[in-house]
Amino acid sequence: MTANEIISYMESLYNDEQRRILMGFFKTGPGEYGEGDEFLGLKVPQTREVVKAVPKDFPLTEIPVLLNSRWHEVRLCGLLILVAKFERLATKRLENDEKAIRDRDAIVTFYLQYAERANNWDLVDLSVHKILGHWLLLPTNLGDRDYKIKVLDGLAQSENLWKQRMSIVCSWKTSQMGDPSWCLRYAEIHLHHPHDLMHKAVGWMLREMGKRVSMDLLRDFLRQHVFLRDGLASNQFIAHIAQSTVDGDIAINEVLNIPQISDNQWWTARGDIHPRTVGLGLREREDGRCGYLVRLETHQRAVDVEE
Fold first, then answer.
1. In which residue ranges of the chain is pLDDT below 70?
2. How many CA atoms lie within 13 Å of 174's alpha carbon, on the beta-carbon side?
3. Residues with Cβ < 8 Å from 58, sequence gap 6 or more?
4. Bridge partners of 280?
5. Does residue 13 lie within any of the structural domains?
6. Which spans in 157-291 are helix H?
7. Which domain holds residue 38?
């Protein structure tokens, strides 16, 4: 099996109706974050079935053909083949095996070399934690912990949005394995990021860190950082952190251990949020949806807030 044979097969599954749905969902229009991306119209389970059929000894040298494809799903296929290869080398039995270490390092080096080809949020989110995130906690010949920090700092400081997202989403795996340090480091680095995709990623990873490692660490981070922002960015960040760190109808004031305040002190919110927000939570509205609610210490007026 060759990369071109994989591409030909995936092209035979072309679905125009699904393609149009995906192009809208992944924001491929002019000026949007996925501008110019092209789709075959395959669902992720279809791509995973293709990956299952790829031989385990599929050469690494063939994968650039997939990653350089114009088709989003073909690039995903290439990334998932890398994930499968890495996971086979990262079992407990092979964790300290010298050949496995060399092969894992080769995959990580390859992944970083082609990082820009993971050029939408799903391509990052389905691959980075299972390759780069896992590698952070495994033996390597490439360097010590400082080297690993340098690698992630390089991604975080890149001008490429998807590389920046990699630096925080890779902490999904480290949190699963009980190490919160990577999440906390890159959540703080991206605290002032202007893009909502990064706000959501930070909130998501903080939630995972809190669930997997320590809710106390999550509370400490939110107390220290969430209420220090101002203006529109503060509003967006608070809303996304609230959405991403709260499950169901549990209010974020419970996460932060903020005492409940009375109904007449709540306002529905959208727009500018004063930096001295002293209460934040979720509340069901009359239409059955949940809105974010804030109490502003100095603004004695109701403002619309992002839902």
1. 226-307
2. 24
3. 1, 81, 85
4. 294
5. yes
6. 161-169, 171-176, 181-189, 196-212, 215-225, 231-245, 252-255
7. 1-89
Q: What would the DSSP string read from start to end of 231-298?
A: HHHHHHHHHHHHHHH--TT--HHHHTTPPP--GGG-EE--S-B-S-EEEEEEEE-TTS-EEEEEEESS
Q: Which pLDDT score is estimated for 235?
A: 44
Is 16 inside any structural domain?
A: yes
Counted domains in the chain? 1
Structure tokens given for 76: 């995903």
* Domain-located, residue 266: no
Q: What pLDDT score was predicted for residue 242?
A: 52
Looking up tokens 């503060």 gives 234
N residues, the chain: 307
Whether 61 is in a domain gets the answer yes
What residues contact residue 154 under an 8 Å CB cut-off, 6+ apart? none
How far is the C-alpha of 73 from the C-alpha of 90, rounded, in Å? 25
Dihedral of CA 271/277/278/282: which sign? positive
Spell out the residues 6+ positions from residue 232 whose beta carbon is closer than 8 angstroms to its own: 271, 272
| Predicted pLDDT of residue 240 | 53
Distance CA 132, CA 112 (A): 9
CB 172 within 8 A of CB 203: no
pLDDT score for 194 = 83
Cα three-residue angle 37-38-39, rounded to 5 degrees: 130
Place of tokens 């109706």: 17
Amino acid at the residue 190: H
pTM over 0.85: no
Measured in whole angstroms, the distance separating CA 258 from the mean position of its chain's CA atoms is 28
